[in-house]
Amino acid sequence: MAILGQIRNRPWLLMGVIALALLAFLVNPDSIDKVFGKNPDVLGKVNGDKITREEFNDQLFVLQQQAEQQGQPKNGLEEQAWQLLVQSKLIKQQFEKLGFEMTDDYFWNQIQYDQMFAQNKQLFDEKGNFKTQELKKQIEDIKATNPEAYNQWLKTRKSIEYRLMARQVFANVSTGITTGKKEAEELMKERDQLADIDFVKIDYATYLQKNNIKVTTADLADYIKQHPVMFKTEASRNLGIVYFPSKPSAADDAAAQKEITKLFSGGTDASGGKENFQNTTNDSLFVMANSDMPFTNQYFKPDQLPQTIQGPITTAAIGQTFGPYKEQNFYVVSKLIDKKTSDSTLSRHILIAFKGSPAGEGVTRTKEQAKKLADSIGAIVKANPARFTEFLKLSSDPNSAAQGGSLGWTTPETPFVPEFLHYLANNPKGATGVVETQYGYHVINIEDKKPGAMAYKVANLVKAVKPSDATEADTDKKARRFIQQVQGKSFNDFVNIAKKGNYQFSNPKSAKRFDGQLQGLGTDKDAEILAWAFDKKRSKGDTEFFTVDGTGDKIVVYLNGIQEKGTADPESVRDQIEVIVKNKLAAKQISEKINAAKASNLDQIAKLFSVTKQSAQVNLLNPSVAGAMEPKVAGAAFGVAKGKLSKPVEGGTGVYVVLKKNETVNKQPGDLKQFTETITQRNAGMFGQAWLKSLQDNADIKDYRIEIWNKLGSQQQ
């Protein structure tokens, strides 16, 4: 109120604020952010290039489509979409720096090399030429007939463009990767040199079994300090999660079994106990009215049916029932209501479209005129099938027309419109007829038929075994009692109370805001939990209670740590580096004991640690020592004088002391030119990801997502 009073008393102040805002608009649109806060439609920037909400949603859509096609979960892909966009922006910037431009001609000239098309043999003719014009025509047809599918194509095209740019950039930059003559000669020398050694190895794992070494937070911090680049991190949260699944009890299981038995052989309440699944005269309506799963009016192969009935169904009579039987958390009774062979049909068609139909672009004939024309063609072809090809020029399906009208072999499972499939299923070889669909009138000629496997139509009466209200109430009671017990307690108390109650506990230590799914959980509440944990109001030690929609499951979350963007908190990466740090501490102790012993030979060192002396032949380029890759040990073998003991060497799997006995040269086949090419190819293959990571590490990347979505709440899309 005091500020409002100042504005009323000083109108020039109000004018100044307005002027400042207007100036921001006029001078630099980006400065709007400074006046009004982040633009909710700009999620970030990469070296100044904006990542818009629309771009993010398009990239996320493409990933979700790919996941769906591969049978993978569609949720939890937000962070992957973001990372791909960041990398795509970096690639685009390099692409343009090299003087290239993503024109329409460039796109169509290069698309054949994209992973999405390069392996598709149908897109290449018999000479190996890519069918660019045919693909363009298909996309134009989609644009005219299916706007939604065309919009999906545009989103997919953007991803393809980024991949084509990456291909071009990597090809250009990797061309500059060469191997010098001196470098190749030195590498060949290292390849051919061998050192015969005796050595003593004090294995870390064995040593730590006998010597207890605890890794403190300070030890972890020291290691992180020595390797700062490795531990750059985005903002994350350390969470304690206890999950209370609302599982059906034995009483709930018995109730479901009793209910389905009543429906199967007793009678429904609606019929006064007279109608049941055995005696019903309308199976589909009975299932629709009484089942927890809908009736499916389709034919299935045996291996597509519930496992319990896959064998018996092949010899069953129509009307025979099976069950009740249990499939996972469902009780089921199945009834065979029909069976038939699933024929394969070879057919061809002529599509007569009309104005306004999806395939009717450029067509002026009316629906009535189209029907009259189709009927006329159908009558002629029916009388003389050989004349079919005369009318292909009238077809509005150019793809099939180019193949003589052929649609190839199809089955009832082929994704054609129902009217078309119905005609194929119910007419014999040689039949010709006219069928109306949403696309127009089809003159169909059935060229051949061959019988397929038997298919079965089954009515399944299903009752889910669900937790009762009493079961859900008991779960809720346990969860609420637990959150009361841990309120204001330490994280150790949270863990111990969970373990004492034998509750399901997990501890995602580095949960990112847009991970989508939480390690050890995986529910539809994961995204909501992450949003809660990243809220600016949260403090370490906060707890919250969540209920999973539709299941009655409960989740109690404890915020154990807040990691802001920067260097990783030592405890958040303990699981990743504790073994490494413990080995280093062990290496220090072992080396100190060796130095203190002032041993003059390997036998004395072996006796000191109760190990045996070993022998090996080592090579610098392939530094394998007794089955372990140990480059430091190979370096020591060639660095120490013949007959002399090396200093203790901190290897990857243990501490070594080496005695070199001899050096030999084993010249391998292949000339310098061939070897140089091999090394160059290897380096070029390793270059791509390393170069892209370097670009990303050195880029100016602004990520506004947390700030924006904290303000917008759930409005993430």
Textual characterization of the structure:
- With 717 residues, the protein is α+β, with helices and mostly antiparallel strands.
- It contains 25 helices and 23 strands.
- The strands form seven sheets. Strands 5, 13, 14, 15 and 16 form a five-stranded antiparallel β-sheet that branches. The protein has a four-stranded antiparallel β-sheet with strand order 18-3-22-21.
- A hairpin with a 2-residue loop joins strand 6 (321-327) and strand 7 (330-341).
- Helix 10 (181-192) packs across helix 24 (672-697) and helix 12 packs across helix 21.
- The longest helix is centred in the N-terminal third of the chain and has 28 residues, at 147-174.
- The two termini are 36 Å apart.
- The model is unreliable at 1-36 and 713-717 (pLDDT under 50).
- GO terms for molecular function: peptidyl-prolyl cis-trans isomerase activity.
- It is a single-pass type II membrane protein.
